Each structure stands twice: as C-alpha cells, then as structure tokens.
Amino acid sequence: MANPDSKETLKITAEDLEAVTLPDAAVTGPISPAPPGARSYGSISDASDQMPEVAEDKASILLQGWFYLGAAGLVGALLGWAICEPTVSDGEGVRRWGDYLLLPLLTMFMCMGFGIAESVVERSSKKALIRGALSVPLGLGLGGIFYFVANIIYNIALMLCSAAGVQTHRNPAVWLARGIGWMVFGVAGGVIYGIVGQSSKKAKFGVLGGMIGAGLGGMLFDPIAMLTGKGGPSRAVGFALFGMATGIAMGLVESALKDRWLYVTAGPLAGKQFILYKAQTVIGSLQQSDIYLFKDPSIQPQHAVLELYGAKVQLRAGGPVFVAGQPARTRVLTDGDLIQIGRYSFRYKERHRS
After folding, report:
1. Would you say residue 143 has pLDDT above 90?
2. Rounded distance, CA 81 to CA 85, Å?
C-alpha cells in the first residue's frame, strides 16, 4: 500500500531548460523608473549612475577675453575723448581743461571698462556695479598720477631724440618715444584689472599686456594723426586704437600665460574660459560667485568650490556634479576632465610645463 505522505520527485532535464524562453520585453524592454518615494537598490547596470555627455555648443567670439577687453578699451577711450574734445585747445592759444584732463579721463574710462567687462559678459549686473564703482576712483587717481609720470618719460625720450638730431614728429624715433611714455597708461589698466578681480597674478598679466598694447597704440598715434589730418578726428582714431590695442593685448597675454582654467563647452557661456587664480573659486547661482551660472534652477547658490592645493585642484561639490559622467562629491581634477553642472559643461585644462 502506498504511503499517502510520500511526495513524487520532480525531475528537470537539460532538454526542459533549453525549451524555456523569456518574453522579448524582459530582455530588451526599457527599465521603468521607480515611483516617487520608492527606494532603489541599484541594478546590474551602472548606467543609471552616469550622466550622458552634453553636446558641445558653438563658442561665441563675444566671450573671448581679448575681444571683450579690446571692446572695453575702445569704448572707454572714445568716451574719454568725446567728453574732453570740445575743450581741447588743439595747440592753439591758451591751454584749456580738456588738454589736462584728456588722458587722465581717458585712462579712467578705459580702466572702468576693463574692470566691468568680464562681469558684463558673464551677465552679473551686481558684480559689474561693484567693480565699476571701485574702478572709477582708482582709474581717476592712477590716471592722474600716471599722466604725470608718462609726461616725464615722454619728455626725457624727446630730449634724447633731439640730442640724436631728430627734429620732426615724422621721425619713427618720436613715435617710439610716445609709445614708451604711454606704456605707463597700460600699467594703470592692468593694475585696476587685477584689483577688481582680487588677484595679484591677474594684475601681473594685465600690466604686462597693458604695457604691450599701450606701447603699440602710442607708437601708432602720430602716424595715424598724419594720415587722418589735424584735430579731433585724428585724436579719435588714435585714442580708439590705443584703447583697443591695450585691451586686446591684456586678453592675449592673460590667455597665453594661464596655467589652470575651466573652458565652458556647453551652456550659455560656451567658449568662455575661467582662469583659476584664487585659492577658492566658487561656482553657483549667486551673481557674486566667481563663476556665476544663470538660467538653470537646478543650480544651488554655492553649488561647488574649486580649491587650489599647490599643483592640484580639488573639486568639492555641494550640489549634483558629474565628472567624466560619474557623480562626484570630492575629487582631484586631472587635465581634460569633463565637469557637468546642470546645463553647463566645463573642460578642466592644465598647462604642461617642460
């Protein structure tokens, strides 16, 4: 008699396993997102932890340092000229106040332009107002002091030219003398550029670029005056070139000598480079941030900080940040790292020293 409690053994053969098939959706179907509030314990794939690389946007020339600093110098020089030109004696009769204030005011407006240009490009109106307010007294003060110094240098150079037998302003030696004297105004622009940027290295690069550009503009001033004729139009063209050359040279020197920077590859600021001068560079949605990211509600007021430790740059994230597609909270950056914050993407770059 069979035992009623006995169980029949279930046997599965290899042929049975081969006959088993899964629905196509189980293999190739999309993974449905978890409902709100549900816990996620991950999966075999890490794809959900990665952020797809954002396509690079077309870089705008308006965001290049040499361009917006050159434009700032051009506008500043023309503004100073336009204010003083009606009262310039043009070498005839008694000297008027425009003769004395032309170069100091021109220098002040150029310095103000250099100080606020970057903030205007970054669309930070608050930072532009602060820097502009700081640039005006500094520019006016340094403009007056450097005008006095530039005159001394220029007159000494003219005396040397005269001793060498130069008798006319058509001689290139006189052009060189003016260029050497006007290099002083480039120093003023570079100093203020560094002060409002809160960086001694920025000031150093600005001074070097300003001296080169102002010297070039000064050397070309007399030839332009001879080509365009006497009076206001020749001064307008000459000073415009002077201001533009000073700004362009400052931007080119700063870019050429930088050692660590972020290049924006995607977002509203695509093409802009942020040179890492400071010990801490704050990235966030506040206009006062060193790198102000706008038009993105997902970005926090202080979203991330870049900290310089000797030759290393460490990223410390306060909000969602992806480096090379992976979420990062604290990470030492290496040359070429792609950093993604909201709709913005940055490429971290280092200059390789031989």
Report:
1. no
2. 6
Is residue 120 a contact partner of residue 169, using CB atoms and an 8 Å limit?
no
Q: Which amino acid is at 197?
A: G
Tokens of 180: 């050497």
Residue-wise pLDDT tens digits, 71-94: 999 999 999 999 998 888 876 667
DSSP assignment of 175-210 equals HHHHHHHHHHHHHHHHHHHHHHTT-HHHHHHHHHHH
Establish how many alpha carbons lie within 13 A of residue 49's alpha carbon, considering only the half-sphere containing its beta carbon.
Answer: 10
pLDDT of amino acid 47? 37
* Contact predicate 254/275, CB 8 Å: yes
Average pLDDT, the chain: 84
| Residue 34 clears pLDDT 50, i.e. is over it | no
Structure tokens at 107: 């220098």
Give pairs for 142-145: CB < 8 Å, separation 24+.
142/107, 142/111, 142/188, 142/191, 142/192, 143/103, 143/104, 143/105, 143/106, 143/107, 143/108, 143/111, 143/185, 143/188, 144/104
Give CA–CA dist 321/290, Å, rounded.
17
> What was the pLDDT predicted at 286?
94
The two three-digit tokens of residue 62, written as one number: 């308006």
Residues in the chain, how many? Answer: 354
DSSP secondary structure, 242-291, as one string: HHHHHHHHHHHHHHHH--EEEEEEESTTTT-EEE--SSEEEEESSTTSSE
Tokens 């700032």 sit on residue: 72
Joined together, the tokens standing for residue 137 give: 């007294």
Residue 24, helix vs strand vs coil: helix
Helical (H) or strand (E) element with 348: strand 344-350
Give the integer Cα–Cα distance in Å for 70 and 217: 12
Helix (H) or strand (E) holding 11: none
How many Å apart are CA 90 and CA 71, to the nearest integer? 27
Question: What's the Cα-to-Cα distance from 178 to each of 98, 153, 166, 216, 351, rounded to whole Å?
Answer: 19, 9, 14, 10, 36
pTM above 0.90, yes or no: no
pLDDT at 35: 47
